[in-house]
Design a protein that fits this description.
The protein is an all-alpha fold and about 270 residues long. The protein is about 70% helix and about 0% strand. The protein has 3 domains: about 90 residues, Four Helix Bundle (Hemerythrin (Met), subunit A), CATH 1.20.120.1810; about 80 residues; about 80 residues, Orthogonal Bundle (Arc Repressor Mutant, subunit A), CATH 1.10.10. The longest helix is centred in the C-terminal third of the chain and has 23 residues. The model has no long low-confidence stretch (mean pLDDT about 80).
Length: about 270
């Protein structure tokens, strides 16, 4: 904050030295001279509940980006150009960290996030009542955003993040996460089921290898493939009638059952 302000000629000279010669000393002087710009803007965003030091650091990142993109030939002061980058960096940081859930992703949502409270306070102060549909329409018109976005952002800003580890009530040790039910199988059950599926698939593969080619094709097409075929479609493919396909399917299933009964202790488990 104690660094002297730069004259127009000095900041242009420093900007050219950095752009043309990559002079780091010039960049350092340019950046540190506008540290007060970053600090002053960070103070304006202090009401969002985020550390002021973090806001300043994010603003410094924006200041570095401005210095890297600044074109000295344009008739504009560096501070004017850098203000946009500093503000954008701070706003992006706030949107990322104000809530666990990303608050604003579109341009209209970002505009509402940073202006809704101010406009709502102004309207409520003028009317003496809480924001209603007319007030939301007025905000949507002023910011040029859809009215539905005003409704959505109002709901987001009125809610707050809650930890699942927080107790449900003062007189209990239960937390909110204790009420979350996980219906998925345990890792042990999942592993056992996966292993059983592999064994069953191996049994079916061995049993099908003993069937005639036509009967094996019918079983696969009717029972094992993701998109099964009808009896009529299989009949056209094999050159037989639909009834003949049904007979061959029935005969193949009988052979498979007999094979399982003779080879495995619990073949019924495979067929369930």
């Amino acid at each position: 904050m104690s660094r002297p302000l730069l004259t127009r000629e000095r900041e242009l000279a420093l900007a050219r030295a950095w752009r043309d010669e990559e002079n780091e000393s010039a960049l350092h002087e340019l950046i540190t001279s506008y540290g007060r710009l970053v600090a002053g803007m960070a103070v304006k965003f202090r009401n969002y509940g985020l550390p002021l030091a973090d806001l300043i650091q994010e603003g410094n990142v924006g200041l570095m980006q401005a210095a890297d993109r600044f074109e000295p030939e344009r008739d504009i002061r560096f501070s004017t150009y850098a203000s946009w980058w500093v503000r954008s960096a701070m706003q992006d940081y706030i949107l990322r960290n104000w809530s666990i859930v990303r608050t604003g992703t579109t341009s209209s949502q970002k505009s509402l996030f940073f202006n809704l409270r101010r406009l709502r306070a102004r309207i409520e102060g003028r009317t003496g009542k809480l924001l209603d549909d007319e007030g939301r329409k007025a905000i949507a018109a002023e910011l040029k955003v859809p009215e539905r976005d005003v409704h959505g952002m109002s709901a987001r800003l009125s809610a707050s993040d809650q930890s699942l580890n927080a107790p449900v009530a003062e007189e209990t040790d239960l937390s909110w996460q204790d009420y979350l039910v996980d219906d998925r199988p345990t890792p042990e059950a999942y592993t056992i089921e996966s292993k059983d599926d592999e064994i069953r698939a191996k049994w079916v593969k061995i049993a099908l290898s003993d069937l005639p080619v036509r009967e094996a094709r019918i079983i696969r097409a009717r029972l094992l493939e993701e998109e099964t075929l009808t009896l009529e479609a299989l009949g056209e493919e094999l050159g037989v009638s639909k009834e003949r396909v049904r007979q061959l399917e029935k005969r193949a299933l009988t052979k498979l059952r007999d094979r399982f009964r003779s080879s495995f202790k619990n073949p019924q488990e495979l067929l369930t």
